[in-house]
């Protein structure tokens, strides 16, 4: 692994009130509760809980602006990204492909190697389509995450909407930058800047090589890199320690089924305070499109300009 360089260590108080409402509250393990058995890594980090049944089981719906709402059986949807998803799992884009194959819509699309994503040329004769989506317990939010990377889950809301050509092309430009960065690094995912802003500490790491750890082997093909691999890779290098916790549900969100980062070094989630994250290009930082409620263990990354984990209280 390339040497990771710690460039900044400062003490900071994070203005959590400014970020109120931007993340689902995470429960934490209290002193009265019994910790589940943990897998301990070589550097002393811990992983609590195991992956359960996560494939979609129930009839889903997709709303396409101007065309109406369509129902689909998740057992009938197949993925076009077999390089990313295992059998039984699929993306938001795959739902559109399924509707096209079922004769319910007319979808023209192609794979763009320069962006590593499928592009919609037209849907029922019209171009420039994007999506609004959120998981159970969430709310509408802007996202610039690749549609064919975004895992579908039970009880999620999925809307396909027209956008301006300028907006769509600005998103596509960041995809090209990621692919160019990936190729320039000989097929390695090397993130120029990884930022951790905890309750008590702030770290900035430069040129972090992020390796796949196959934390979600039931969903993703071996070697697929996700945002949470950033934290695990820093742990492998001895630069941080962490706790990961599997959650079946969180608060009003019945369908979570993901690992969350509960601790980084001495900062551990408590009550309504904990870590959230974002990843992508600086052009779409925070609510511009990079900060959304895709759990970091299911957010596939190519070579984003930055990954940031930060502390909030809601």
Key features of this structure:
314 residues; five-stranded mixed sheet; alpha+beta; 2 domains; 31% strand
Architecture overview:
The protein is of the alpha+beta class and 314 residues long. The chain has helices at residues 92-101, 165-184, 228-236; strands at 5-10, 38-40, 46-48, 60-64, 68-72, 107-112, 117-123, 129-134, 157-162, 189-197, 202-210, 242-247, 258-264, 267-268, 273-280, 306-313. The chain has a five-stranded mixed beta sheet. A five-stranded mixed beta sheet has the order 2-3-12-13-14, with helices on one face. The chain has a four-stranded mixed beta sheet with strand order 5-4-9-8, covered by helices on one side. The longest helix has 20 residues, at 165-184. The relative contact order is 0.21. Residues 1-34 have low confidence and may be disordered.
Total number of helices: 3
Task: Tell me the distance between the termini.
Answer: 37 Å
Number of domains: 2
User: What is the chains' assembly state?
Assistant: single chain
- Report the biggest beta sheet as strand number plus sense, adding barrel if it closes: 5 strands, mixed
Rg calc: 19 Å
Unreliable stretches (pLDDT < 50, length at least 5) are 1-34
**What characteristic shape results from the CA principal axes?**
globular
Strand and helix layout:
Blueprint: E1 5-10, E2 38-40, E3 46-48, E4 60-64, E5 68-72, H1 92-101, E6 107-112, E7 117-123, E8 129-134, E9 157-162, H2 165-184, E10 189-197, E11 202-210, H3 228-236, E12 242-247, E13 258-264, E14 267-268, E15 273-280, E16 306-313
Parallel strand pairs: 3-12, 4-9, 10-16
Antiparallel strand pairs: 1-11, 2-3, 4-5, 6-7, 8-9, 10-11, 12-13, 13-14, 15-16
